[in-house]
Amino acid sequence: MSSTHPHHGPAQQASGTEPVGELVQRASQQLTELVRAELRLAQSEMKEKGRRYGKGGGLFGGAGLVGFLMLEALVATAIAALAVALPVWAAALIVTAVLGVIAAVLALSGKKQVSGAAPPAPGQTIENVKTDVATIKESAQR
After folding, report:
1. 23 burial level (CB within 10 Å; 0-12, 13-18, 19+)
2. Which residue from 15, 91, 107, 133 has the highest number of Cβ atoms inside 10 Å of its Cβ?
3. pLDDT tens-digit profile of 59-110?
4. Which tens digit of pLDDT belongs to each residue from 100-136?
């Protein structure tokens, strides 16, 4: 009697395990598709951000160039202002000397900073690694 009932018998056992396998396979495929879609989205986002960084970098470069030209115009203005009271050559010489002093002070400050950074090795990290290695060797000898 149980074999004639449509909900019992060998056909039900085979179909009862098939859907679980299919569900696992379908879930695996969907997970793979989801990961691939997320990777495509991340790649697309990174390309867009890269374009924006490129444009931003170009704009910063342009701003730096225009700023440099502005400083050159400021130097010319200082020379012209001094030329009202002095000969043009004297005004240019004074502005040149002032710029030379500023450049020298900046160079000496930069040299001091660079020599303070020497040597270019991470000293504290190296000491920590040496201590860690010594500790590990001690532990291994026990």
Report:
1. exposed
2. 91
3. 999 999 999 999 999 999 999 999 999 999 999 999 999 999 999 999 999 9
4. 999 999 999 999 988 877 776 777 788 888 888 888 8
Name the strand (E) or helix (H) holding 18. helix 10-83
Give Cβ neighbours of residue 82 (< 8 Å, ≥ 6 apart).
90, 91, 94, 95
Q: Are 91 and 79 in contact (CB under 8 A)?
A: yes
Is the Cβ–Cβ distance between 90 and 82 less than 8 Å? yes
With cut-offs at 50, 70 and 90, classify the pLDDT of residue 2.
Answer: very low
- Which are the contacts of 8, defined by CB distance < 8 A and separation ≥ 6? 2
Predicted confidence band of residue 10 (pLDDT cuts 50, 70, 90): very low
- Supply the DSSP string of 30-99, one letter for each residue: HHHHHHHHHHHHHHHHHHHHHHHHHHHHHHHHHHHHHHHHHHHHHHHHHHHHHHTTS-HHHHHHHHHHHH
Both tokens of 111, joined, read: 């040299």
Indicate the SS3 state at residue 3: coil
